[in-house]
Amino acid sequence: MSGSPGYNFLTTLPSGEVMTSTHLLRVVPVKISERELYSDLIMLDMPDYDVILGMDFLSKYDASIECRKRRVVFQPEAEVKFEFIGEPKKRTKKFLSAIKAQKMLVKGCTGYLAHIVDTEQDRGQNLEEVRV
């Protein structure tokens, strides 16, 4: 069916947008944790993603998603159970808006205002070179 004329595959994204494709790839091997599973894939123009495996795929392989542990456990029929563990969550810098900071201060939180300067930064001039 790949590229068969007359066939349109509609996919609804979580945003509600509907994408159309004419390409269906049948029984594609998908390697997860060194195990080979199979799925039919619909080709979509979504450059930020390599593949999106949906509920049909997860159900087929009796997958259980453990969000807090960042783990998916697969129990394929008549096969040994295995798991996929996602990468640890990267710590991001936390910034507060002025409004949120003010609300927290009103609630009794302690706040600090700091001005941080990189003293190792190469400024490109010596003190003697600065015109006064």
Please give a structural write-up.
The protein has 132 residues and is an alpha+beta fold. It has a domain of 77 residues. 11% of the residues lie in helices and 27% in strands. It is built from two helices and seven strands. The protein has a three-stranded antiparallel sheet with strand order 5-6-7, with no helix packed on it. A two-stranded antiparallel sheet has the order 1-2. The N and C termini lie far apart (77 Å).
| H/E element order | EEEEHEEEH
- What share of the residues lie within helices? 10-25%
Structural class: alpha+beta
Major beta sheet summary: 3 strands, antiparallel
Count of helix runs: 2
Distance between the termini: 77 Å
Mean pLDDT: 85
**Count the strands?**
7
Shape: elongated
Provide the gyration radius in Å: 26 Å
Beta strand %: 25-35%
Q: Write out the strand line-up for the largest beta sheet, numbering strands in chain order.
A: 5-6-7
- pLDDT under 50 segments (min length 5)? none
Protein name: Retroviral-like aspartic protease
InterPro entries: Peptidase_aspartic_dom_sf
Pfam family, one: RVP_2
